[in-house]
Specification:
Elements: H1 2-22, H2 24-62
């Protein structure tokens, strides 16, 4: 039983090598595609981790006793209402020390 499994694997490996010999361009392009895909995933993952670390470092630098206030919402997908533009600008002396 074990011998049959070994023969089957050997036959599959020989078939794969034969296919590689018969279609070298297809094989090279497939390997190139796999390499590009793996490189892209690793690069994007590294960039996301670096950006995440950078943002966390910036937040830690502010400290736990810092509040940031804006005159307008930080992000809005809709058109801002007119009353936003009549709001007074924030003054540093309004903050408690």
């Amino acid at each position: 039983m074990r011998k049959e499994g070994g023969l089957k694997l050997r036959g599959e490996v020989l078939l794969a090598l034969d296919t590689l010999k018969k279609n070298p361009l297809r094989s090279a392009l497939t390997i190139l595609g796999i390499v590009i895909g793996i490189t892209t995933v690793i690069t994007v993952s590294a960039m996301i981790n670096g950006l995440n670390d950078n943002v966390l470092a910036g937040i830690r630098e502010l400290g736990s006793d810092t509040i940031i206030a804006y005159r307008f919402p930080w992000a809005s997908l809709s058109r801002p209402p007119s009353e936003w533009f009549t709001r007074k600008e924030l003054q540093p002396e309004w903050a408690d020390d």
